[in-house]
Write a structure and sequence with these properties.
The complex is a heterodimer.
Chain A (H helix, E strand, L loop, with lengths): L4 E3 L2 E4 L5 E6 L6 E7 L6 E7 L2 E5 L6 E5 L5 E5 L8 E8 L6 E2 L3 E5 L1
Parallel strand pairs in A: 2-11
Antiparallel strand pairs in A: 1-3, 3-8, 4-5, 4-9, 5-6, 7-8, 9-10, 9-11
Chain B lengths: L3 E4 L2 E5 L4 E7 L3 E9 L5 E7 L2 E5 L2 E6 L4 E6 L8 E9 L12 E3 L3 E6 L1
Parallel strand pairs in B: 2-11
Antiparallel strand pairs in B: 1-3, 3-8, 4-5, 4-9, 6-7, 7-8, 9-10, 9-11
């Protein structure tokens, strides 16, 4: 069965650079969630989208933005990167059942 | 105090032992998830519960809504069960999140190590 796809899997950026993370949900899933997991930390909710509209916002910095496109994939754009942005970024998708299926994550390292 | 508390934080067991991981939550929830995270980071959803009990192979998850408590049990544990197990609550409404549905509040995880 198709799973949630995230790209890239690993990304190394320098401070003050920008990064774009992509998430492709399971087919027919209409909701996408983004989570950030810092080293040794539990995941924290960033933002979610339902039917291409932002449905909720968590602890997402103003330097980050995200959107969901017509094909339901989502992109998380991160600007003016800081060392503290180094983390594992998970995307999850769900449909009417509300069960969230997680992608493998993108490991971002900011140097 | 965290809204989702797990215990124990670390657990070492011998192969074959019965394992229980506990989760308590203080928020109203619409569902509770048990997740498994292996070294390297990937998260797998094991169960989503809103009431009662679910079983999948050697894994059993229970939830008591009145007591705001859930448990994950692993029978006949095996070294390949070694991972971090995370309890995550899907809040009905939470003031910090504007009363939305869907996003999860995660516990700190329980690191399980099963020795052969």
């Amino acid at each position: 069965a198709a799973g949630v796809i995230q790209s890239p899997r690993h990304l190394i950026k320098e401070k003050r650079e920008t990064a774009t993370l992509k998430c492709y949900p399971i087919p027919r899933h209409d909701t996408v969630y983004w989570y950030q997991q810092g080293p040794g930390q539990d995941p924290q909710f960033l933002i979610s989208f339902y039917e291409k509209m932002q449905s909720d916002k968590g602890s997402i910095p103003d330097r980050f933005s995200a959107q969901q496109f017509s094909d339901y994939h989502s992109e998380l754009n991160m600007s003016s990167l800081e060392l503290g942005d180094s983390a594992l970024y998970f995307c999850a998708s769900s449909s009417d059942s509300y069960e969230q299926y997680f992608g493998p994550g993108t490991r971002l390292t900011v140097t | 105090k965290n809204e989702v508390e797990q215990s124990p934080q670390n657990l070492t067991a011998q192969e074959g032992e019965f394992i229980t991981i506990n989760c308590s939550y203080s928020v109203g929830i619409s569902a509770l998830h048990w997740l498994q995270q292996h070294p390297g980071g990937g998260i797998v959803s094991l169960f989503m519960l809103s009431s009662g009990k679910k079983k999948h192979g050697r894994l059993i998850a229970t939830i008591n809504i009145q007591e705001k408590h859930s448990s994950l049990h692993i029978t006949a544990s095996h070294p390949r069960d070694s991972a971090v197990y995370i309890c995550a609550a899907r809040a009905v409404a939470h003031m910090n999140y504007g009363g939305s549905q869907g996003n999860l509040i995660f516990g700190k995880g329980t690191k399980l190590s099963v020795k052969p």
